[in-house]
Design brief:
heterodimer; A: alpha/beta; Rossmann fold; six-stranded mixed sheet; four-stranded antiparallel sheet; 11 helices; 10 strands; globular; B: mainly alpha; MetI-like fold; two-stranded antiparallel ribbon; 12 helices; 1% strand
Chain lengths: 274, 295
């Protein structure tokens, strides 16, 4: 079996390669020697991972281990924090986004972002989705309406909101808001979905909707999902990256990692997590 | 022990309630007092002519407040128009673009500006703004002006209002969650698009209320305006004309010429007018905020 990536050990790859054989040859995200520091503290240490296309990669680890920072490096939201210093390289579709002349807005449009709490934009439900479309230069009303409907259906929100598209997005329930945020991200047609504990503020039912959505979306998108919930990681992950104190302790296909956890800290985490 | 804790608990809330009632009653009492005091004036002057007449000669028993109302509004509107872009852009820059130390540095600076007594601003206006308007601006526009003018009052008032409004705007922008910006940026918006479409909209009610409060405060400002506005009872034809504001009228004349019949109650009516105008403006701004929060 051919795998170009040495990081995933060959013996496990059987099931995964069936699904991802092609994808593995073209890694969508390739992070090399990424170091992130803020003033004197190092937040991320020597991160090296490859994230394959059309899969769910779960960044797992205790709070404060640098998962969110890693996620924000991927679409350079780290630019917002002037005291963060990044070195290394992050290649997305072959472009090194840390050292590139490509407009950052184009890079960001390759990625949809879903945060811990939903942050609907202060506009109507319709406008929340139309906003990203307009940023992409789509002006035609009929096209926008069509896409708004399509993406609201994609996240199973259409039936709930189709009669009040013009009303404020803030009036939706928090679960609906999170689905709206997902639809908003999908509307710019990204390749990657970055999800930072997107279910942590949601009730179990809304959480399940999001999870089911992710499992469906896996066929068309690459999902990078941050969580500290072990069971959620088990349900979703194709690949797991386990982080601890800014370092990657273990990574690989989910079933292998969960069957035979190697590092002690991961064993500990899994024991407590049960 | 248990009883006394409960007693203290009960008492504390009662105390707070009575403080609240006191605070609420105070403006009501002031309003009533003003109405009662200015009542004698109403007996021989219809309200309409008091407000809209511009004939002001107390010795003849003529009290037309229109020049004062216009003067006050002119000066305040000029001040707020100057403040709107200045404070908004400064607040956006400080919260969105400037490095953190700059905001930390600006806070005490703003507090110092806010703490300068208004008479000092007045003196500064006399020494700098009045000559600037009289010798530079007015000739530039081909107008004759001594410098003591509506414009000078507006400029001084603008400078005085900046720290007050800027402080509130900074608070508005600081309260917008970072994640909202991240959400917009991640959709491919530039920083400017994010500010324009997301932050300004999110902060709109706060921004409006900052200007609304600034407007009310500026309208009542007395000393500095009184020193530069000229204090001439006339309907200003241009911003280079001298004017007279309601607070200046009261401050200049209360306690003098009290032998003139009804003069006392006329000044009280001036205060009542100011009170009502500020109340009206507050209600209007509340309504705008209420409307903008619905979006």
């Amino acid at each position: 079996m051919q795998t170009t990536t040495p990081i995933f050990k060959t013996n496990h790859v059987e099931r995964e390669t069936k699904l991802h054989a092609v994808a593995m040859e073209v890694p969508i995200v390739d992070i090399q020697n990424l170091n992130v520091s803020a003033r004197k503290t190092q937040i991320l240490k020597n991160i090296n991972i490859i994230i394959p296309k059309n899969s769910i990669t779960v960044l797992l680890g205790p709070s404060g281990c640098g998962k969110t920072t890693l996620l924000k490096c991927l679409n350079r939201l780290t630019d917002l924090y002037s005291d963060l210093h990044l070195t290394g390289s992050i290649k997305i579709d072959g472009d090194d986004i840390l050292n590139t002349k490509i407009d950052i807005t184009h890079i960001r449009q390759k990625m949809g972002l879903l945060l811990q709490k939903p942050y609907p934009l202060p506009m109507s439900i319709y406008e929340n989705i139309a906003y990203g479309l307009r940023l992409k230069g789509i002006r035609k009303r009929s096209v926008i309406s069509e896409k708004v409907e399509k993406h609201l259906k994609e996240v199973a929100l259409w039936d709930e909101v189709k009669d009040r598209l013009k009303s404020s997005a803030q009036k939706l329930s928090i679960g609906q808001q999170q689905r709206l945020c997902l639809a908003r991200g999908l509307a710019v047609e990204p390749e990657i979905i970055l999800a930072d504990e997107p279910t942590s503020a949601l009730d179990p039912i809304s959480s399940r909707v999001i999870e089911e959505e992710f499992l469906k979306l896996r066929n068309d998108y690459t999902i990078i999902h941050v969580t500290h919930i072990l069971r959620q990681a088990r349900r979703l992950a194709d690949y797991v990256v386990f982080m601890y104190y800014g370092e990657i302790v273990e990574y690989g296909p989910a079933d292998e990692i969960f069957e035979t956890p190697k590092p002690d800290i991961l064993k500990e985490y899994m024991k407590v997590g049960h | 022990m248990v009883l006394s804790r409960r007693l203290v608990d009960n008492l504390s809330s009662k105390w707070m309630l009575s403080c609240l009632i006191f605070c609420l009653l105070l403006p009501l009492a002031i309003g009533t007092g003003l109405v009662l005091k200015s009542f004698p004036l109403f007996t021989n002057h219809p309200l309409g002519s008091l407000i809209f007449s511009s004939n002001w000669s107390p010795s003849d028993g003529q009290f037309g407040f229109w020049p004062f109302i216009l003067g006050s509004l002119w000066v305040t509107i000029i001040a707020i128009i100057i403040c709107i872009p200045l404070c908004l852009l400064a607040a956006i820059y400080l919260t969105q673009f400037a490095p953190g130390w700059m905001l930390k540095f600006m806070r005490p600076v703003i507090d110092i500006l806010a703490g300068i007594p208004s008479v000092v601003y007045g003196v500064w206006g006399l020494l700098v703004i009045v000559p600037f308007v009289g010798d530079k601006l007015a000739p530039y526009f081909g107008v004759d002006s001594l410098g003591y003018s509506i414009l000078a009052g507006g400029l001084v008032l603008a400078v005085m209002s900046i720290p007050y409004i800027l402080n509130m705007l900074l608070e508005v922008f600081r309260q917008i969650p970072v994640e909202l910006g991240e959400a917009s940026l991640s959709l491919g918006a530039t920083k400017w698009e994010t500010i324009k479409h997301v932050f300004l909209r999110k902060g709109s009610s706060g921004i409006i209320s900052a200007y609304g409060l600034g407007f009310s405060k500026a309208l009542g400002e007395t000393m500095a305006v009184l020193m530069v506005v000229g204090n001439v009872v006339q309907i200003p034809q241009s911003v280079f004309d001298a004017g007279y504001t309601l607070p200046a009228l009261i401050a200049n004349n209360y306690g003098e010429m009290m032998s003139i019949p009804s003069y006392d109650s006329a000044l009280m009516f001036g205060a009542l007018l100011l009170f009502v105008i500020i109340l009206l403006i507050n209600v209007i701004f509340r309504y705008i905020i209420y409307k903008s929060e619905l979006i």
